[in-house]
Amino acid sequence: MSKIPVILDTDIGTDIDDTWALTMLLNCPELDLRLINTVSGDTTYRAHLTAKFLQAAGRTEIPIGIGLGSPEGSLNFQQPWLDGFDVDSYPGTIYPDGVQAMLEVIAASPQPVTVISIGVATNIARALERNPDIASKCRFVGMHGSVHLGYGGAPGAVPEANVRYDVQALRNVFAAPWLEKIITPLDTCGLVVLEGERYQKVYRSQNPALRALIENYEIWSKLVTWMTVDYTDSKSSTLFDTVAIYLAYSFDLLEMENIRLRITDDGLTLPDPAGDEVLAALRWRDLDAFYDHLLERLKP
Hints:
Number of strands: 10
Radius of gyration: 18 Å
CATH topology: Inosine-uridine Nucleoside N-ribohydrolase, Chain A
CATH class: Alpha Beta
Structural class: alpha/beta
Order of helices and strands: EHEHEEHEHEHHEHHHHEEEH
CATH superfamily: Ribonucleoside hydrolase-like
Number of helices: 11
């Protein structure tokens, strides 16, 4: 079976789950990662973080694109890990225009490309502006929204961050005629925390990519501003973005439902018959099996 060509669009370096998701993606035999684009905030910092991580993982053949930034303030919570990193000696490719790089990867692929969005949809909306035809050649898989549950499984929808920080971009993405339009909202991705012996296998691993992951987790835990993280030796934080990686190649462990969603100005994703139809992972069939699968993909 041929691999699925994918583009990862990520705000790596603010929440740590993007780094977990990238680690998982690098080990997915179903997926052929053609490009990693950075989005929102300081996208150059995010690109350099990605580059150093790819170097640690031995995967510098994967190109990186610097996407559209935004003046979000200092959310560079993994910055200390970049100390001493010389981007000028990085052997891989870093494109200065990530949106253009995305368009070129899509144009060059004879197969449909799956665009995995684990940040705000700013880059993808801009790519659609430049060439609306890309939607009909691609699948969209996003970590976006909150339908029935909020953060930590709390009942009721909330404005999810990847929606709230660029509402119009996601509206434009949802309105586009993708081959498939798939999301994991907080209803499913907001429940994923790796702990116990499974976490210890990652935490104690000597795999270079996992050492880099845990180094980043420990740095991030001391700098992150929206939560207190004093448990890096016992469990992960919420690994939202790993579920989007999984949905790029399998639905087996989730209950998928076609649902029409309207995005409000404050970033709620509300069921509405007049909204755009998406295929949403609204419930887990077997979250415990997902943890086993995630551990297998992380390769401790």
